[in-house]
Specification:
294 residues; alpha/beta; 6-stranded mixed β-sheet; 10 strands; globular
Length: 294
C-alpha cells in the first residue's frame, strides 16, 4: 500500500509502522480514492468484486425456475376437430403392431342441453393441450404437439406414435376425455401393457410409462380436487391397456390422460369450465415435472 510522502511523520517512521498507520487511516494513505477508482488494493477488492457464490445462487435460481430445460415433451391432443368431416379417412385401418385398427375417431362430447351446445372432446383436448404447452415451456421444456388443428383430420394413431418417437421425447402425454355412462365419474391415466407383436414392443417403456402415469395421477388429483375414476382402475386412477396403437407403437414413455367423463353431468360441468381446464393442465404439468426430475 503506498504511503503519503507529504506527511513528515509517516516518512520518518519505520516501514512496518507506516503501513500500520496507513491501515488505520485509509484516507491518509490514499486507499479511499483508489477504491473509488476500482484499483486492486485490499479496500477495492473488498468493496468492488462480486463474490462467486452470488453468481452461483443466481444460476441455481434460473435452474430451479426452468427445471425442464433440455427436455422434450410431446403433447398429443386427442382427435382432431375436423375428424367428423372425414369419416371415410379416419375409418381406414392402420397397423398397431398386434393387429389393425381405425386411423382415429371423432371422439366424444358432452350432452347438448336446451341452453348449451355439446362441447366436443376434440375442442377440450386442444384447449387443455395449449394450456399445458404454455406451462411446460415456461419451465424450460421443448414442446411438440402432434397436431394443432392445422390439418384436415388426424393424424392417425400410428403417426401420433411416430411423432413422439422421432422427437426422442422424454415423455409423451395424450390428452383425452372419456365418453362413459352417466354416473361414471373421475379421471384416469391409461398406461401401456407389455405388448410384443409385429412392429410393437412395449417392454422397454412399460415401467417408465407407469411411473409417469402415477406421477400425473397424483398431481392431477391434488391440483384439480377430483377423484380417480369410480368405474375402472380399482380407485388407483390407472388403467392398463394393450389395444391402443398410440401406446403399442411408442418407443418412449407415454400415457393417455382421460380427464373426466363428458357424458356425466357433474363431470361435464367441470370439463366445460375454463378455470377447471387450467387446473387440469396444471396437474398434468406438475406430474410431468416430478417424473422428469426423478
Amino acid at each position: 500500500m503506498p504511503y503519503d510522502h507529504r506527511n513528515p511523520v509517516t516518512r520518518s517512521l519505520p516501514a512496518a509502522l507506516a503501513a500500520l498507520l496507513c491501515s488505520a487511516a485509509l484516507a491518509g494513505c490514499g486507499a479511499a480514492p483508489e477504491a473509488a477508482r476500482g484499483t486492486q488494493g485490499p479496500g477495492a477488492a473488498a468493496t468492488t468484486v462480486t463474490p462467486a457464490p452470488a453468481r452461483s445462487q443466481a444460476a441455481a435460481a434460473t435452474t430451479a425456475a426452468r427445471p425442464l430445460a433440455g427436455r422434450t415433451v410431446v403433447i398429443d391432443p386427442g382427435h382432431n376437430p375436423g375428424n367428423f368431416r372425414h369419416g371415410r379417412e379416419i375409418a381406414e385401418k392402420v397397423d398397431i403392431g398386434t393387429n389393425r385398427k381405425e386411423c382415429d375417431t371423432t371422439g366424444t362430447s358432452t350432452n347438448a342441453t336446451g341452453t348449451q351446445a355439446a362441447y366436443t372432446e376434440a375442442a377440450f383436448t386442444l384447449d387443455v393441450s395449449h394450456r399445458l404447452r404454455k406451462l411446460l415451456e415456461e419451465r424450460g421444456a421443448k414442446v411438440v404437439l402432434t397436431h394443432d388443428a392445422d390439418r384436415p383430420y388426424g393424424p392417425c394413431v400410428d403417426e401420433r406414435a411416430r411423432i413422439g418417437n422421432a422427437a426422442e421425447a422424454d415423455a409423451v402425454v395424450s390428452v383425452h376425455a372419456d365418453g362413459s355412462a352417466k354416473g361414471n365419474r373421475g379421471f384416469h391415466v391409461i398406461v401401456p401393457a407389455k405388448v410384443k407383436g409385429g412392429s410393437a414392443d412395449t417392454a422397454p417403456i412399460v415401467a417408465p410409462s407407469r411411473t409417469l402415469g402415477e406421477r400425473i395421477a397424483a398431481a392431477f388429483r391434488r391440483t384439480t380436487g377430483t377423484s380417480p375414476a369410480n368405474y375402472l382402475g380399482d380407485g388407483t386412477g390407472l388403467d392398463v391397456r394393450s389395444d391402443l396403437g398410440g401406446l403399442n407403437l411408442s418407443t418412449v414413455p407415454k400415457v393417455f390422460v382421460e380427464c373426466g367423463n363428458m357424458r356425466d353431468p357433474k363431470d361435464a360441468a367441470l370439463l366445460t369450465s375454463g378455470v377447471w381446464r387450467q387446473k387440469a393442465a396444471q396437474g398434468i404439468a406438475d406430474g410431468i415435472v416430478t417424473y422428469l426430475e426423478g
